[in-house]
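User: Structure please.
Assistant: Input sequence and predicted structure:
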Amino acid sequence: MKNLNLRSSQFANYLYGEYVSRKEMLELQLQGKEPKIPSYMMKYVSHGNFNEKMGIAFYIKAFNTIPKDYLKDQQNYIIQNWLNLPKGKETVSISTTPDAISNDETHLIEVKCSMKDKYEEFNKLWLPQVYGQIHILSSLGKKIEKTYLINYTPIVCRIWQVDYNQDYINYLVSNLSEFAECLLKGKANGLADKSEQFKGNIDESIKLIKEYHYGEKE
């Protein structure tokens, strides 16, 4: 029996084909492969990996507390057989590795590192990953109330609070299920190029709560 796994870091691709088309993502998943990172993008990946610790440091500065399960101690969470298929069938799991979690396990920390200050407004392409993480940990028994999304750049760091939103989670689960069912069929028949945009009110769930300036714009 084969198990196919959908990772939260790719949820924006599974829904919107934002960086890699949905059909290409389907083919890669069937082959057990990850999207190839173009060479020109590697500097951004390296920047993010190197500076993730700065995002955690700004969380500590903002809340005067040290989270757990961060950097080398990050934990992976997985829901096996997410669609509750009968035993003996090919299954789909969903998984996530949050950047950190609060000591009381009521909120998650997700760090996004940018080389330039380009997100004065919250980037809603982060939402599938953010709410995917909340959904997975909540389903595994954690009482997750929110995520602190930290966008670190060389000149400014912003911290957004993203509150639990069941309507968005329902939307996410519905569209991920559609992708997962096509995956189990082994073909993209009927899979739209993009999921429809969320029609509920998400703005009330997102608040900029901290903003630290320490450099000058180029």
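Residues 38 and 198 are 29 Å apart (CA to CA).
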